[in-house]
Design brief:
337 residues, alpha+beta, 3 domains, five-stranded mixed beta sheet, 18 helices, 7% strand, elongated
Length: 337
């Protein structure tokens, strides 16, 4: 997530009478550092902010209210692109292409099998940790709709919205803002727009500014790290404590998701917790065996094996050869057993 977007959240909290610096500090952040256009914050911190701020502000429709507060300002790159294009369709589609500049791990895509006369955009995430919570989805959707009304006419409204989360207590306010049917508890998050709505001209169209904004967005994307897979996040977690056999409960708790969610997503990536644990221990074993000053028994102990013989059997299963033979071929200096 861009730190600048988080900065806007804390400034909104200030508008609601809270100390933005104190709130930022609560999440280990500083307002000064977050003001940098290139600064970013991690997925887990971003999720914590979106989960806790509505409670701290006592605002169960914070996403909607934040969008109403920001709509006259704009400021977020995909929205600026939408309000600079020739039509809503052009701006909407080109803006969504740069959604990852705001947050890694998730994307809005347009469906190839939408009904005739309709554009359907759906939210897709590669990591359950990156899945946008309710307030993020309501904020983003409301900001798009309100910005579109500002530049293309007050009649702009989606044909339908669908959300994964269950219907909230304050759903009537969302219905009044979006002016369309809203279906909750759906398989995925979707925005449906009629072609005639997207064909509306944008009164603030600016072709030269659009080129500049897209160029800026692509530079941001080029500078972002490759999107991490969930398997990569689990491997990193496992490597920090290889001596303890992991369980779905402990790992999912550390990642902030449900055990079944973790298992399902690992299966989708063609792996499992047991496979990742084996791989992490094998990789660490190879690192240690390359150092001739580290005995095989010490390697076994660091990796959580109660006996050297058990480590020997596991390493043969992983690599096809014994630790001693692997070390002889790969160690720096002479072998040691």
């Amino acid at each position: 997530m861009t730190a600048n977007a988080a900065h806007l959240l804390f400034r909104y909290a200030e508008h609601r009478g809270h100390d933005p610096a104190a709130l930022a500090s609560r999440f280990g952040l500083s307002l000064e550092a977050m003001a940098s256009p290139d600064a970013r914050i991690s997925v887990d911190v971003a999720q914590a902010i979106w989960a806790e701020l509505p409670v701290l502000l006592e605002d169960d429709n914070m996403g909607l209210h934040l969008a109403e507060h920001m709509a006259p300002i704009g400021g977020l790159l995909p929205v600026l692109i939408m309000t600079s294009a020739a039509t809503l369709r052009e701006g909407f589609e080109r803006g969504l292409e740069l959604q990852r500049t705001l947050a890694e791990g998730s994307l809005w895509r347009t469906s190839n099998d939408a009904p005739a006369g309709m554009l359907v955009a759906y939210y897709e995430f590669d990591d359950p940790m990156a899945a946008a919570p309710r307030h993020v989805l309501e904020f983003g959707t409301a900001l798009i709709i309100l910005a579109a009304r500002r530049v293309a006419g007050s009649e702009v409204a989606p044909a339908e919205l669908r959300f994964r989360y269950e219907r909230p207590a304050g759903y009537r306010e969302a219905e009044a803002l979006f002016r369309c049917p809203i279906r909750y508890g759906q398989p995925r998050d979707e925005m449906h727009f009629r072609d005639e709505t997207l064909a509306l001209p944008v009164q603030t169209a600016n072709p030269s500014l659009l080129v500049h904004l897209e160029s800026h967005g692509k530079r941001i994307l080029d500078g972002l790290p490759a999107e991490p897979t969930l398997a990569g996040r689990v491997r990193k977690l496992l490597r920090d404590n290889l001596a303890a056999a992991p369980t779905l409960d402990t790992v999912s708790r550390a990642l902030g998701c449900a055990p079944r969610t973790l298992q399902r997503w690992l299966e989708r990536e063609g792996t499992s917790l047991a496979k990742l644990y084996d791989r992490a221990r094998y990789e660490r074993a190879c690192e240690l065996l390359r150092d001739p000053s580290t005995g095989v028994r010490a390697v076994a102990i660091e990796l959580g094996f109660s006996e050297q013989a058990a480590f020997h059997r596991a390493f043969v299963r992983w690599s096809g050869i014994s630790p001693g033979r692997w070390r002889a071929a790969n160690a720096r200096g002479g072998p040691r057993s």
